[in-house]
Amino acid sequence: MTDHDSGCRQAVSWTRRFAAWRLALAAAACGAFLHNGSVAAEPKSPPPANPLVACELFPLTAGHEWTYKSGPLEVIERVTRHEKVGNELCARIETIYNGDVVAYEHVAVRKDGLYRVAISGKPVEPPLRFLKLPATKGSTWSVESAIVGQTVKGNFAISESSVTIGDKELPVVVVEGKDFTAGKSKLSFTYYFAPNVGKVKQVVVANGQETVLELTGLPHPAEPAAAPEVREL
Predict the structure, then answer these.
(1) pTM over the 0.85 mark
(2) Segment 196-225 mean pLDDT
(3) H or E element in which residue 16 lies
(4) Could you tell me the fold of the domain covering 3-27+51-222?
């Protein structure tokens, strides 16, 4: 087998596992509440900040992207746009490998945390909270959701650490998911979130097989968000 054939098989295998983990995890949108009422002759209150943009631990401005390494492979995660899933404003995050979109999800930011609302266009019922806000060291919570009839459940805990990106050491919030099950699969995973950067590292173990995503550099600046598209799943 040539090195090229081996690399292609590894890429295909990684892509399939990544798609399966996305479904299994089922590693952000708060509907923006607009204040329409005002008193005559008084200036109108400015609308509150879009929570997708204002979330410090996972800034989700449309156009924002992160480039990760997973072994010899390079993977991009990009916020392509903001759109509504039902009545909730979400960030659509696409995972891109070798120029192709291999997975996507819709993430919401609510007052109490970040939620996966849909995976590959399929609703997560109920939406799965993968980061509790405020992100306080020692916080724990449990989740149980279903996607396409498959139940995903487990427990999360928050701790603190640091991660080095290039020549910078960044403080991070560590979100660890232990003892997860998705159907008959056993899972564990750890997310590392740096303030004003987003996810800088992700470790997933599925049935004993580990895959690590590590940020290669600080993310590219984002373009202004387009008007949200109304989308129903």
Answers:
(1) no
(2) 85
(3) helix 3-25
(4) YmcC-like fold (2.40.360)
Sign of CA dihedral 196, 201, 32, 132: negative
**Are the C-beta atoms of 199 and 27 separated by less than 8 Å?**
yes
User: 102-111 burial by CB neighbour count: b if 16+ within 10 A, else e?
Assistant: bbbbbbbbbe
What are the sequence ranges of the domains in the chain?
3-27+51-222
Of 147, 80, 67, the residue nearest 115 (C-alpha): 147
Peptide bond into 51 cis (omega under 30): no
Q: Is 159 helix (H, G, I), strand (E, B) or coil?
A: strand
Provide the token pair at 119. 């995976």
Kindly report, residue by residue over 117-166, the tens digit of the pLDDT: 999 999 999 999 999 999 999 999 999 999 988 999 999 999 999 999 98
C-alpha angle with apex 168: 92 to 78, nearest 5 degrees?
Answer: 10
| E-assigned strand segments in 37-149 | 65-70, 73-85, 88-97, 100-110, 113-119, 122-132, 140-147
